[in-house]
Specification:
Radius of gyration: 20 Å
Strand order of the largest sheet: 3-2-1-4-7
CATH architecture of the largest domain: 2-Layer Sandwich
Number of helices: 10
Structural class: alpha/beta
Strand content: 15-25%
Helix content: 40-55%
Bound molecules: zinc ion
Shape: globular
Length: 321
Amino acid sequence: MADGSTIGIDLGGTQLRVAAIDAAGRILDRRAAPVDRAGGVRAVIGQMEALIAAVRRPDTAVVGIGVPGAFDPGRGLVLDIPALAGWTAIPLAAEIEVRTGLPAVLENDAKVAALGEWRFGAGRGIADFAYLTISTGIGGAFVVGNRLVRGYRGLAGEVGHTRITDRSATCSCGHEGCWEAVASGTALARAARTAVERHPASQLAASAAGAPATGEIVTRAAREGCPVALSLLGEEAAWLAAGLVNVQHAFAPERVVLGGGVSNALDLMLGDIRAAMRRRLLPGHEVPDIAASRLRDDAGLLGAAVRAQEWLHETERSPVA
Ligand SMILES: [Zn+2]
């Protein structure tokens, strides 16, 4: 039974993605829908139920759900999802079980993405592995000695909120100076908007075409050789390296995999990142492999399924309560 298919769910702020996945990590069937934000919690749980029904197989044994917020894994309770209104103290695992008859397990969204990359993607076979998503914010998860690090109440990995500077814009957490506040896609977009105002004749400004500049527009302009965009990516690389040096000293991954929109520009920044890290690492230590996510948007789906499989094995091994 434990080797039957598993359902992975990636609940994002805008997209809900559901897939049936076999034990080898093959996606057997998948569905996606825009999150019914206006409909609220009940509507979104109804969407999950419908998408599970659409993809489930006769041998489906368990559902894994990546949660972009705080949760209580023991009680299957979503405590808070900052990106979605109303998700406070929601017994999501129990709701899914009642509606589908399948047990459900919750896990942090960055941790499931890390599990997906570690088991089936760019982190495969690496005992000491870091996954970082650089998008609206910065999320992270660490595998140390072949074990995902969760820490007390699951907080381990929230490196986006480690303090890295004295001055920054206010972070999503309400404080200043976080890594996320200076190196996320949001921070890059903010710097890009300022650069467009200062350099209205630049290729970057032309690419933005009057709309607010984004990290994607910076990357495109940089590939066209725009010096303003290249300079923005130089600053982004410096901030990424500053945080990655801290990550290296704390967890010492052999390989670091970067996901999220900003990782699309990794090839343009990698030389600067590596050089800056080399200057700051303790003598005698090497810069790790740094690679872009291989599974991209599927990392969370596959990882949620990996977590669900693991949980099923743990439950089967434990003595009956
Ligand atoms: Zn913060």
